[in-house]
Amino acid sequence: MSRVLLQKTDLHGLAARGAIVEEVLEAAYLSRLAPLVTDTAATVACNLALSLDSRGNTLVGGTVTTTVGLTCQRCLEPMAYRVEASLDVAIATGDESLAMLEAEHETVLPAEAPRLADLVEDEVLLALPLVAMHASVDDCGPLAQRLDDAAQDTSDERTTNNPFAVLKSLRSD
Question: Which residues fall within 8 angstroms of residue 170, CB to CB, at 6 or more apart?
Fold first, then answer.
C-alpha cells in the first residue's frame, strides 16, 4: 500500500527536502475514479518530484501512468484505455500566491493539507476521454458493427433513391 501518496502530508516539508515519490497506487483508493472504471484492480504508477521554486512555493512535477478499463459507448463492451499524464502543479498557500503562481503553473489552493493521491487522481480524471470509444468500429463488439453496417446500408439507399435526381436531368447547362 502507498504510504506517502495516501497520507495528508506536509508537502512543503517534502519539497524542501527535494523528495521523490515513486509508488504504485491501486485505483480502488481513488474515490472519484473508481466509479468510472470497470476494473478497480488497476494500478496507477506515479513518479513525482517535489521541489521549491525561487519564492519558496511548493511544486509537484512528474508523470502518472495507468491503463484503466472503461465502457465503450459505441458497443457497451469493456475497453482498455492508456493514460500517460504529466504533472506540473504548484500548491498555493493563499490568494496572493495563487495569483502569482497561476501565470506559471497549474495551481491548486487546497482547503486542507492535500494528499498527493488527490493530485494524481485529478490528472488521471483530466486525461480520460469524455466519451470512451474503441479507436474504430472494427475494434468494437458485434452490436456496434451491425449498427454501423445498417447505417451504411441506409445511406447507400438514400443516394440511390434520391427524389431530387429528376431535377438534375431537367437542369440545362
Answer: none
Q: 60 forms bridges with which residues in the sheet? A: 50, 89
Sign of CA dihedral 81, 87, 102, 117: positive
pLDDT tens digit sequence for 84-141: 999 988 887 766 666 667 667 777 766 677 788 999 999 999 999 999 999 888 888 7
- Kindly indicate the confidence band of residue 1, based on its pLDDT and cuts at 50, 70 and 90: very low
Residue 52 in grid coordinates: 521549491
Neighbouring-strand partners of residue 83: 66
CB of 49 closer than 8 Å to CB of 62: yes
Distance CA 116, CA 97 (A): 20
